[in-house]
C-alpha cells in the first residue's frame, strides 16, 4: 500500500471533509494511488456502482475523461426495477424530485404533426396514477416503485453529487483512463490528469466506459450481433412554450413520445423539464433538424437548437463480461436500440449485481463463485434484453413500413393508408412501451450461487407474473400497516420466515454466520406474503434475488450456506 500526504496533489480529491479513502504518493512526478475498486466511466452505470460501493464502505476511485457531466439527452427514463434499486439506495425520492413531475401522463402518440388529430393514442399512467394502482395491488404483480422520466443530463449530476458525499468514494473528472495490467493480487491502471500521469493500484477494475469501451478493447473482448442497423440524427431543443400549449389545435394531448408517421423515422421526446425536447430523424445534414422540428410541431414556436449529433442503432452483446480482476458493465457489454428502454436500466442492474459481490469478496466472506457468477447472471439478462430490444424495434419498423406518400391525402386511398398504419401500430408500437416482464421478471438460471430448480416459468417480455423461483427478484407485497416488505429487509442476506412457520432454522443461521456473512432473520406472519410467495422459508441475497426456498429447514444447511456465499458446495 502506498503512503503519502493527501495534500501533495489536487488529483483524486474527494470533496469531503474526511480524509481521502485511498493512499497516494508522488514518485518521480508520477502520482501513485491505491484503492479497492477503480471504476472507469462516470455515466449513470459507473456512478451508480460508485454510490453502491461507497454506501457499503468500499473504497473506490471513479475516473471520467470528460471535464464534467454533459448536457446531452441520451437516456430518458428509469424503469420500475431501477427505481426499486434506487429506493434501496435511499435515492428514489431525490430522483423523482429532479425528474418529470408526478402528474404528467406518460402517453404515446402517433401523429402527422402535433397540431393535427393523432392517428393513434396509447395512454400510460402518470407516476401519481401508477402509485395509486401500486398502493391498491395485493397480489405481487406490480413493482414497488413506478417508472420515472428523468433525463441523463439530470441524473448524472445528481448521482455525482451523492457519490461525492461518501467518504470511501473519490470522483475525478477530466481524468483519462489509458491502460492497465493485472496480476494475481490486483490491477495497475494508468491515467492522465492534465499534463500528469498516474498509476492507480486497485484490487479490481470495472469498465463502465460505454460502447467503445477502452477497457473492453484492452481485454480483447469482442461484441457480436447486429451493428449499424440505422443512422439517425438526434437534436436537443429548448422550447419553453410547447408543453403548456399542448394540445396544439386539434393535436394530441400531453404525453412523453410523439412518433411522426413519415419516411424519416421522426420521433419527438419530451425531456424531464418539459422545456427541452429531443428529436430523432433520418436526415442528411445537421441543419435539417431545425426544419424537421418545425414540421413536427406544426405551429410557430420560439425555440433554440442546443445540440445535434449522429447515432447508430446497434444490437450487440459482449462475448464476456470481464477477465480476471477486470469487469465490464453497462454499454461496455450490451448495446441496444432504445425501444423498450432497456439500455441504461440494464446497466444499473449490472452495477448492483457486481457491487455486493465485490464488497463481499473484499471483506473476505465471499467465495470465488461470487464474482464468477457475475458474468453467468448478467450476460443472460443482457442477451434477453438485446432480444427484447430487437423485438420492440421490429414492431416499430413494422408499423413504419405502412407509410405511403399519400398518407395526408384526403382521399379514399389516403384514408386506407392511415387506417392500415394505425391498425398495425396499435399492435406493434405497444411492444416498445410495455416491457414490464423484461424489467421485473428476469431470473438467474444456472448460477453457482442460486439453488436452481428444474423447469421454471417462461421469461415473458411484456407481462409480469410474480414468482418466488430461485434466481428471481422477490416480488413486492404490502405488509400490515402498508409497509413494503423490501423496506423491512436489511443489506445482507435475509432469511424470510413466512406465515408463522415454526421451523427450526438455527443450523442454517449458524452456518451462514460461521462464514462471516451478514444475515438477518425476518419473521413475517402476514398471510398475504405467504400466499404470494407460496413457501414458508426464503433465503434472499443482498440484491433481493432468491437463493433458496423451502417448506422446511434445508437438509444440508452447511452446503446451502457455502453455495449462497460463493464457495463450492
The 3D shape can be described as globular
- Give start-end ranges of low-pLDDT stretches: 1-22, 25-30
Domain tally: 3
Average pLDDT confidence is 93
> So what's the oligomer here?
single chain
Distance from N terminus to C terminus (CA atoms, Å) equals: 34 Å
CATH architecture of the largest domain: 3-Layer(bba) Sandwich
CATH superfamily annotation of the largest domain: FAD/NAD(P)-binding domain
Strand runs, count: 27
Give a structural overview.
With 569 residues, the chain is an alpha+beta fold. It has 3 domains: 23-72 and 151-223 and 321-375, FAD/NAD(P)-binding domain; 100-145 and 230-312 and 401-440, D-Amino Acid Oxidase, subunit A, domain 2 (D-Amino Acid Oxidase, Chain A, domain 2), CATH 3.30.9.10; 442-564, Glutaredoxin (3-Layer(aba) Sandwich), CATH 3.40.30.120. It is 31% helix and 24% strand. It is built from 17 helices and 27 strands. The strands form 6 sheets. Strands 1, 2, 3, 8, 9, 10, 11, 19 and 20 form a 9-stranded mixed sheet that branches. Strands 6-5-14-15-16-13-17 form a 7-stranded mixed sheet, with helices on both faces. It has a 4-stranded mixed sheet with strand order 25-24-26-27, with helices on both faces. Helix 10 packs antiparallel against helix 11 and helix 15 (506-514) packs across helix 17 (557-564). Residues 1-22 and 25-30 have low confidence and may be disordered.
Topology:
Elements: E1 23-27, E2 30-40, H1 44-55, E3 60-64, E4 77-78, H2 80-88, H3 92-98, E5 108-111, E6 120-122, H4 127-136, E7 148-149, H5 152-163, E8 169-173, E9 175-182, E10 187-193, E11 196-207, H6 214-219, E12 223-226, E13 231-238, H7 242-245, E14 257-260, E15 267-270, E16 276-281, H8 288-297, E17 304-312, E18 315-318, E19 322-323, E20 326-328, E21 334-335, H9 343-363, H10 368-400, H11 412-428, H12 430-433, H13 436-440, E22 478-479, E23 483-484, H14 485-488, E24 493-498, H15 506-514, E25 519-524, H16 527-533, E26 537-540, E27 546-550, H17 557-564
Parallel strand pairs: 2-3, 2-11, 3-8, 5-14, 11-20, 24-25
Antiparallel strand pairs: 1-2, 4-7, 5-6, 9-10, 10-11, 12-18, 13-16, 13-17, 14-15, 15-16, 18-21, 19-20, 22-23, 24-26, 26-27
Amino acid at each position: 500500500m502506498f503512503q503519502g500526504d493527501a495534500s501533495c496533489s489536487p488529483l483524486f480529491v474527494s470533496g469531503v471533509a474526511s480524509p481521502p479513502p485511498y493512499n497516494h504518493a508522488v514518485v518521480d512526478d508520477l502520482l501513485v494511488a491505491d484503492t479497492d475498486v477503480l471504476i472507469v466511466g462516470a455515466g449513470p452505470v459507473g456512478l451508480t456502482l460508485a454510490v453502491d460501493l461507497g454506501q457499503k464502505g468500499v473504497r473506490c476511485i471513479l475516473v471520467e475523461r470528460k471535464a464534467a457531466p454533459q448536457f446531452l439527452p441520451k437516456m430518458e427514463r428509469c424503469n420500475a426495477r431501477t427505481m426499486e434499486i434506487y429506493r434501496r439506495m435511499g435515492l428514489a425520492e431525490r430522483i423523482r424530485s429532479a425528474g418529470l413531475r408526478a402528474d404528467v401522463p406518460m402517453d404515446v402518440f402517433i401523429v402527422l404533426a402535433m397540431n393535427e388529430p393523432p392517428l393513434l393514442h396509447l395512454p400510460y399512467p402518470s407516476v401519481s396514477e401508477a402509485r395509486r394502482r401500486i398502493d391498491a395491488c395485493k397480489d405481487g404483480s406490480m413493482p414497488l416503485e413506478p417508472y420515472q422520466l428523468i433525463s441523463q443530463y439530470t441524473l448524472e449530476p445528481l448521482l455525482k453529487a451523492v457519490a461525492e458525499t461518501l467518504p470511501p468514494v473519490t470522483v475525478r473528472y477530466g481524468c483519462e483512463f489509458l491502460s492497465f495490467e493485472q496480476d494475481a493480487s490486483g490491477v495497475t491502471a494508468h491515467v492522465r490528469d492534465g499534463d500528469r500521469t498516474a498509476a492507480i493500484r486497485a484490487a479490481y477494475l470495472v469498465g463502465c466506459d460505454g460502447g467503445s469501451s477502452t477497457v473492453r478493447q484492452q481485454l480483447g473482448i469482442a461484441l457480436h450481433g447486429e451493428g449499424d442497423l440505422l443512422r439517425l440524427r438526434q437534436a436537443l431543443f429548448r422550447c419553453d412554450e410547447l408543453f403548456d400549449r399542448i394540445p396544439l389545435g386539434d393535436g394530441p394531448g400531453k404525453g412523453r413520445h410523439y412518433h411522426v408517421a413519415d419516411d424519416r423515422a421522426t420521433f419527438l421526446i419530451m425531456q424531464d423539464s418539459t422545456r427541452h425536447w429531443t428529436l430523432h430523424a433520418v436526415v442528411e445534414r445537421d441543419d435539417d433538424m431545425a426544419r424537421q422540428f418545425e414540421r413536427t410541431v406544426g405551429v410557430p414556436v420560439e425555440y433554440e437548437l442546443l445540440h445535434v449529433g449522429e447515432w447508430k442503432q446497434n444490437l450487440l452483446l459482449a462475448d464476456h463480461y470481464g477477465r480476471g480482476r477486470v469487469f465490464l458493465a453497462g454499454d461496455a457489454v450490451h448495446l441496444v436500440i432504445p425501444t423498450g428502454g432497456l439500455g441504461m436500466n440494464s446497466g444499473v442492474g449490472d452495477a448492483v449485481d457486481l457491487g455486493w459481490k465485490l464488497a463481499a469478496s473484499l471483506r473476505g466472506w465471499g467465495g470465488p463463485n461470487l464474482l464468477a457468477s457475475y458474468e453467468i447472471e448478467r450476460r443472460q439478462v443482457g442477451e434477453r434484453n438485446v432480444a427484447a430490444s430487437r423485438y420492440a424495434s421490429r414492431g416499430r419498423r413494422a408499423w413504419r413500413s405502412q407509410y405511403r406518400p399519400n398518407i395526408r391525402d384526403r382521399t379514399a386511398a389516403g384514408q386506407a393508408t392511415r387506417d392500415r398504419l394505425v391498425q398495425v401500430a396499435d399492435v406493434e408500437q405497444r411492444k416498445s412501451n410495455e416491457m414490464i416482464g423484461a424489467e421485473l421478471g428476469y431470473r438467474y438460471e444456472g448460477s453457482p450461487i442460486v439453488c436452481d430448480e428444474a423447469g421454471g416459468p417462461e421469461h415473458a417480455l411484456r407481462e409480469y407474473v410474480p414468482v418466488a423461483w430461485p434466481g428471481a427478484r422477490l416480488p413486492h407485497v404490502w405488509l400490515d400497516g402498508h409497509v413494503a416488505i423490501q423496506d423491512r429487509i436489511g443489506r445482507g442476506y435475509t432469511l424470510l420466515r413466512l406465515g408463522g412457520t415454526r421451523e427450526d432454522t438455527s443450523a442454517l443461521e449458524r452456518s451462514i454466520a460461521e462464514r462471516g456473512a451478514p444475515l438477518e432473520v425476518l419473521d413475517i406472519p402476514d398471510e398475504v406474503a405467504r400466499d404470494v410467495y407460496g413457501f414458508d422459508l426464503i433465503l434472499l441475497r443482498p440484491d433481493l434475488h432468491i437463493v433458496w426456498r423451502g417448506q422446511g429447514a434445508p437438509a444440508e444447511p452447511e452446503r446451502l450456506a457455502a453455495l449462497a456465499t460463493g464457495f463450492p458446495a
